[in-house]
Amino acid sequence: MSAMSVLVIDDEPAIRTVVSAFLTRAGYTVEQSGSGDEALGRLAKGDIDVAMCDISMPGISGIDVIRQARTAGIDTSFIMMTAFASVDTAIEAMKAGALDFMIKPLRNEEVLHRLAQISDLRGLRDENLTLRKLVLGDRNENFHFSSPAMQAIDRVIGKVARTDSTVLITGESGTGKGVIARQIHQQSLRAAGPFIPVNCGAIPENLLESEFFGHTKGAFTGADRSRKGLFLQADKGTIFLDEIGELPLALQTKLLHVIEDKGVRPLGTEQERKVDVRIIVATNRDLVDMVKSGNFREDLYFRVSVFHVEVPPLRQRVEDIPALVRFFVERNKGRYGYRGPVTVEPEAEEMLKAYGWPGNVRELENVIDRALVLAEDGRVTLEDLPPAMVRAAAPGRTRSEIPYSGGSLREQLRTVEHGIILRAIEEAGGDRRAAAERLEIGLSSLYRKLEDFDRQSGAESKARTASVKD
Fold this sequence. Notes:
Elements: E1 5-9, H1 13-25, E2 29-33, H2 36-43, E3 50-54, H3 62-71, E4 77-82, H4 87-96, E5 100-103, H5 108-134, H6 148-160, E6 167-170, H7 177-186, E7 195-199, H8 208-213, H9 230-233, E8 238-242, H10 249-261, E9 263-264, E10 273-274, E11 278-283, H11 287-292, H12 298-304, E12 307-310, H13 321-332, E13 343-344, H14 346-354, H15 360-374, E14 379-380, H16 387-393, H17 409-427, H18 432-439, H19 443-464
Helix pairs in contact: 2-3, 13-15, 15-19, 17-18, 17-19
C-alpha cells in the first residue's frame, strides 16, 4: 500500500465520492473538499501529497487554488481535472504550477498511472534529501570478521535479511549494532529503499512523536510548516530505532500501533496514513528486566524481538582486533593526509589486543584516528596510543615506562576522563543511566562528555592534519 495522501477537490459531490472511493480501494489515503476555500484550508496543514482539483468551481477556481497554494509555500503536487479541455486552459494550469492535466470522465487506469508517476518523483526527491542528511554516516564498506561469534552472526543476518521480520539487536554501546542493522537492510529485498537510522536517546521527549510520525502546519506552537515524520521517510525501506529502551511508555504504545496496523497519524490530523516499513531496533539495556519493572511494554517487546541478534563485546572477540585495526587505518588514513601505506608496529598491535575496550569498536576507531594524527613516517607506534589506554592495558608498568604522547595536559586529562566514563558504562552492563549514577553525574552530563570527547578529538585531528607526513 502507498503512504501517499490525496485530496479530491470538486464542487460536484458525486464526482468526489466516486473518485475518492476508487482511490481508497487502490490503497491511497483520501480526503475530500467541495470548494476552493475549503481545499486551501485543508492544504494549509501541509501534509497532502497530491491534490486532484477541478478547474471550474464556483468562487475560487482550481487554477487560483494552485496559485494561492504555491504562494503559501504548500508542497503539494496538483493534477487538474476538467470536462472542457482546451490548450489554453492546460497551459494556464501548468504555468500556475500544475504537474498534470486530465479530462473528465476520468479513466481509473490512467489515474493510477499518473499517481504512480508522481509517487516515484516525490519518492526520489525525498530519498535524495534523506541521503544528503545521512551522507556522512552512510558507510557502505563491508567488513569480514575473523571471530567465530561474528561469523555466526553474519550467517544469521543472511537468513533474516530476506524476510520482513522485525529484528532486535542487543549488545554493549559501540559494538556495531548500527552496522549490523545496515547490513540487514542492504541484504534485504528493500535494499533499494531508504535506510533511516534514529537515535531514540538523542531526541528530546517532547519532540519524539513529531519526529517519528510528522506533523501538520499549526499542529503545535512553532510548527510553521508541515513535517514528514521518520516513518514516512522510511516508506518502502527500513527504519532503525537505536536505543529503543529510552522511549517513554506513551510512545511505546504508539509504536506498537504502527507495527500492528502499519499506519501512522501525524500530529494535527485524525487521518491515518499507511506506511510500508521494516523495523529494526537496538539497545544496550536489558529489555526483559525493563518489562519486569514496568518500564517497557511486554507486548511491544514480543513484537520487536521476533528475531534477536546479540552482539558480543570486542573483548570477547580479540581475533577481530587486528583486522579491524587495518580496516580503520585504510578507511580513515586519507582524511589525515596519508597517500602511501600506513603500518602498525607489532608492539602497538599487541597493546591494542591486550586492552579491554570498554567502548568497543567505536573506541577502537577513535584510538586509530588519534594514532594517525600522531604517527610519523607512516608508522603507528606504541607512543601514538593514548597513555590512559596503555596504563589500563599494562597496569604493571611503572610511570616512567608509560610513553608520553606529546599531547597537551588538557587533552590527556580528557582522555583519562573518557576512559573512566567508558569503564563505568562497561561495569554497569552498558546501562548509561546506572553509570552516571555511579559517577555521581547527571545522565545528560555523561552524554555531553562523550559527545564533547568525540567532537574535540575530531577538531584536533583536523587541526593537526597539516603536520602529518606522507
